[in-house]
Amino acid sequence: MEKKEFISKSPSDTLDIGESIGKSAKAGEIYALYGELGAGKTQLVKGMARGIGVRDWQYVVSPSFTILNVYEGFKCNLCHVDLYRIENAEFDALQVEDFLENSLVAVEWAERAVWWNGVIKIKIEVVDEDTRKIVIGG
Asked: What is the pLDDT of residues 34-69, one digit of tens each?
């Protein structure tokens, strides 16, 4: 995937960028999200859910305690993973590969796992209180 950069000036912008990603995403893709606490990773995933047609996309929340949530979309399903509370060895036990046939997978705190080729990396950098730089691929 070619590198794309976006500037978000608000949570609404981040949601819209996520929706754009979701509209072009397809089952079998894994999106590894990187960014500090409060950067907007969950907001971006919420937008991705809206983009693939998850009916109740506004209720997409970070699965910090459940680790993994699956949402049914019109285009495909969304498997939303949050690795904040787990170690690399525990990630393997989640077997996210099992979801790839029918889902796109979005992983928050992706730096806590080892990834293979083909994973689409999304980095969200906090520029200031309202502004985020979102870099996809590259």
From this structure: 999 999 999 999 999 999 999 999 999 988 878 889
Phi then psi for 135, rounded to 5 degrees?
-115, 125
Confidence (pLDDT) at 18: 97
Residue matched to tokens 């979005």: 106
How wide is the angle at C-alpha 137 spanned by C-alphas 97 and 80, nearest 5°? 35
44, two tokens: 């971006």
pTM of the model: 0.92
Fold held by 4-136: Rossmann fold (3.40.50)
Cα 32 to Cα 138: distance, rounded to the nearest angstrom: 13
Residues 95, 133: Cα–Cα separation, whole Å: 31
